[in-house]
Design goal:
elongated, 6 helices, seven-stranded antiparallel beta sheet, 14-stranded mixed beta sheet, mainly beta
Length: 425
């Protein structure tokens, strides 16, 4: 039986755990009383070796998870649960943050014995007066004003490996925080790979750093780029070491900082053979203001990389070219004046102004055009001018096709910047 159990557990997290065979009465009920129990002593010693006393800290604000609430006639209303942090005593005031109600503790019990105080880790019943138990079945009780009600949050996030679907930005999930589950929209992001720092994950979110917007949570199953499809090692190296998510709740939730957050797809068919838990994380920052999109989100330096491509149409002089196909006819080109561009031939330039009314623009080449670039543009111009002449055009068609010179404009735009500015490094 021991070998069979070891085989069963071989591919689980319990691989290699000790297994002790136990028989309270070897031989069954008909065995003689002289038969002694087997394995009980070994089991007790093993359990004792694995047991430890947790460290409990009575300092800090009081926080208790209530799992039952009932009334006792002539006494008051009793809330039973486990103290998650801090300590509490008789005559202390406690708040029920979900109801915005504060009550004074009349008495307390632990395992049917009256006590005057309790601390982190204790299982306790707290009696208060003038409170209807129907208002609270489960929830949190805390020191007054120690918990906040938030409308959005930033969490560190990890995908649950058994969830086989991609985690898409802007998708809605069931977000569970403490005893509350609400719908929420998710936005995933990470640090740029080149800026990823080594070391342990911090429990603080740094608003001073810049973060890269992601269309989805990145994992080993995610195709990061076309060129990485055949290179698994490169793909893994490009995965960010840490990823975060902005959660925007449809209803505000009350919770402590650094609490566990779970994202799920609870609307999935319960008969489907799939995991409905999608991701988990730790709540790092909560936004209490209802107008968080205007107050807090502009402080979050979350950006997207934007790339546009056009072509050089013709040369005006050694330091000026005319470009096209980068903007639409109706685009206000003045918004892009002063931005840097790069030609596919290597020259750097700056958008100087618009040119005409069809979306064309003038580029100032900082160090001038190279002789090779001028030759290419001259050849292309001649070929274009000869395009309507029969024999000459056929002769030119026989030559190698001349590729147009591409103009590339790259910039980053902050997602929550109300001014929608374009930034170049």
């Amino acid at each position: 039986m021991t070998k069979k159990m070891q085989k069963t557990l071989e591919n689980t997290r319990f691989h290699g755990v000790p297994i002790i065979s136990v028989a309270a009465k070897p031989g069954g009920p008909d065995a003689p009383e002289s038969e002694t129990a087997q394995g009980i002593g070994e089991l007790i010693e093993l359990l004792k070796s694995q047991t430890y006393l947790p460290k409990r800290d009575p300092s800090g604000p009081f926080l208790m998870a209530v799992d039952h609430c009932f009334s006792i006639r002539g006494q008051g209303t009793v809330m039973t649960g486990t103290i998650l942090s801090g300590s509490v005593s008789i005559n202390d005031s406690v708040e029920i943050p979900a109801l915005k109600v504060t009550k004074k503790i009349k008495s307390m019990q632990m395992f049917h014995k009256p006590v005057s105080s309790a601390m982190q880790g204790d299982r306790v019943g707290i009696c208060v007066t003038q409170f209807d138990p129907k208002q609270l079945e489960r929830g949190l009780v805390c020191s007054p004003d120690s918990l906040c009600t938030i409308h959005a949050a930033i969490i560190s996030v990890k995908k649950i490996s058994y969830f086989k679907h991609p985690l898409q930005t802007k998708a809605k999930f069931h977000i569970t925080v403490g005893h509350e589950t609400v719908m929420g929209k998710v936005t995933f992001f990470s640090k740029p790979v080149r800026e990823t720092e080594k070391g342990q994950t911090s429990n603080r979110f740094d608003f001073e750093k810049e973060y890269l917007y992601q269309d989805e949570y990145l994992s080993k199953d995610t195709r990061l780029a076309e060129e990485d499809k055949e290179n698994q090692e490169v793909g893994e190296r490009l995965l960010p070491k840490e990823q975060w998510a902005l959660l925007e709740f449809e209803k505000p939730v009350t919770c402590p900082r650094l609490c566990l957050v779970i994202g799920s797809k609870l609307d999935t068919d319960i008969h489907a053979n799939m995991c409905r838990l999608a991701f988990h994380g730790v709540l790092l920052e909560g936004f209490e203001d209802k107008n968080y999109t205007e107050v807090y989100l502009p402080k979050l330096k979350l950006y997207k990389i934007k790339n546009r491509e056009g072509q050089v149409e013709r040369v005006m002089d050694d330091y000026t070219v005319i470009g096209r196909s980068l903007f639409k006819k109706e685009t206000n080109i003045q918004l892009f004046v002063g931005l840097k561009v790069k030609l596919s031939t290597g020259e750097d330039g700056v958008i100087e102004s618009g040119f005409g009314q069809s979306g064309k623009f003038k580029i100032r080449i900082l160090n001038g055009l190279s002789s090779e670039t001028k030759s290419l543009l001259s050849t292309a111009s001649k070929k274009k001018s000869k395009g309507g002449k029969g024999e000459t055009a056929k002769e030119d068609d026989g030559k190698a096709d001349i590729q147009p010179i591409v103009v590339t404009l790259s910039f980053k735009r902050y997602v929550f910047d109300p001014q929608k500015r374009m930034i170049q490094s």
